[in-house]
Amino acid sequence: MSIQVQNVSKNFGSFQALSDISIDIESGELIALLGPSGSGKTTLLRILAGLEGLDEGAILFDGQNITNVSPKERKIGFVFQHYALFRHMTVFDNVAYGLKVRPRKERPSKEEIAKKVNDLLALVKLDNLADRYPSQLSGGQRQRVALARALAVEPKVLLLDEPFGALDAKVRKELRRWLRKLHNEFHVTSIFVTHDQEEALDVANRIIVMNNGKIEQIGTPDEVYENPKSPFVYDFLGNVNLFKGRLHNGKLTQGQFEIDVPTYLDSHEEAVGYVRPHDIHIEKVQSNNETVAATIVHIHLLGPVVQIELKRDDIDEYLEAEVTKEHFNELGIKKGDVVYIRPKQLRVFIPEDFSI
Ligand SMILES: Nc1ncnc2c1ncn2[C@@H]1O[C@H](COP(=O)(O)OP(=O)(O)OP(=O)(O)O)[C@@H](O)[C@H]1O
Fold first, then answer.
1. How far apart are CA 238 and CA 198, in angstroms?
2. CA-CA to 239 of 20 to 30 Å: which in 54, 133, 228, 314?
3. Which molecular function term from Gene Ontology is one that the record holds (predicted)?
């Protein structure tokens, strides 16, 4: 089912939680709603579910305006952070619940329900635990039951609110795989809320980045990571180094450092160059003035990647570079060495970009 959010605004008293949000979601997408706490993610999800009203705008499912349709009639599956499983029911009964409570005319037969539940439990690899109660399961297993239960009723849309938020990092990773797998199997249009950028980049086919009740950017993980539209998105999606300087004649200047930025021909007294750690090139001998001297203050080995923390020699600022282990070995550098760093790729923002 496709979803259109058209110019939706929502106030709580005098506080504007969502302002003029518009989104087009195609049928079968797996969307991450990403943003800091309070940015409006849950409010938007609740509006989609019909659990919260809206002040302005409309919600369309498959082109039909469902703004005033009840939550029940929207045929939505829900998974929350705190697996709200029925404690007194077994795993099997939890998954079967939504089918068993259907009105008699729509209810599948007992055998059909059993087959469906067993298939779903096999899919989330819990078929051997069907008779257990929620208290006898780990957090990750409970969340898999919650996913199976949400899918049992064949929802047209699956909404997940920080579904893995309460779990530890390793289990979260495992559940991301489940979510992708289930999504590939069922193709249900799914939207999940997260404030974990890695989770969003890893799982979603598109990411909606929210800030202050507004959409900052919508795009594929690659687009939002490699081509952030605003300083906020740059900052929110990964580590970044800032080169604050002056923009003049296609050059960004800061202290001793000057770099050609031919695509930025305007002049501004204040501009900031954003550079990802993996776009910082390190050299031992200065090649030109597009480099700046810095002292290595910390080296952090992370398997195949090496993170290098540096302090600039000209101003009191720190930088972070990321190189492959192989390149690190070639460089032969150590803590305390003075090296020259050069941004390989730099994105310039001017003051008005900060006021989106
Ligand atoms: N029922 C309500 N009454 C008043 N204010 C509310 C209500 N629900 C949400 N808000 C406010 O609206 C803003 C957005 O809240 P929302 O829960 O949508 O944010 P979020 O992005 O999901 O945050 P988090 O990641 O912390 O869950 C917050 O400032 C919140 O305090």
1. 8
2. 314
3. ATP binding
> Looking at ligand 1, which residue's alpha carbon is closest to its atom 12?
17
**238/209 Cα distance (integer angstroms):** 13
Q: Alpha carbon 270 to chain centroid distance?
A: 30
Contact 47, 59 (CB under 8 A): yes
Measured from the Cα of 43, ligand 1's closest atom is: 18
Quick: pLDDT tens for 217-264: 999 999 999 889 999 999 898 889 999 999 998 899 987 788 888 888
What burial letters (b/e) apply to 185-194, b meaning 16+ CB within 10 Å?
A: ebebbbbbbb
Q: Which residues line ligand 1 (CB under 6 A)?
A: 12, 15, 17, 35, 37-43, 195
Q: Which value does ipTM take for this structure?
A: 0.94
Nearest CA to ligand 1 atom 26: 37
Q: Please name each of the domains of the chain with its CATH number.
A: 3-235 (3.40.50.300), 239-355 (2.40.50.100)
Ligand 1 centre to CA of 246 (Å) is 38
Q: What tens digit of pLDDT does each residue of 313-335 get?
A: 988 999 999 999 999 999 999 99
User: pTM of the prediction?
Assistant: 0.85
Residue nearest to atom 6 of ligand 1 (CA): 12
Q: Which atom of ligand 1 is nearest to the CA of 210?
A: 21
Residue with the smallest CA separation from ligand 1 atom 8 is 43
Cα 228 to ligand 1 centroid, rounded to whole Å: 25
The residue nearest atom 7 of ligand 1, judged by CA position, is: 12
User: How far is the centre of ligand 1, averaged over its atoms, from the C-alpha of 201 (Å)?
Assistant: 23
DSSP 8-state assignment for residue 303? T
Amino acid making up residue 100 = K
Query: Which has the closest alpha carbon to 351: 255, 262, 294, 266?
Result: 266
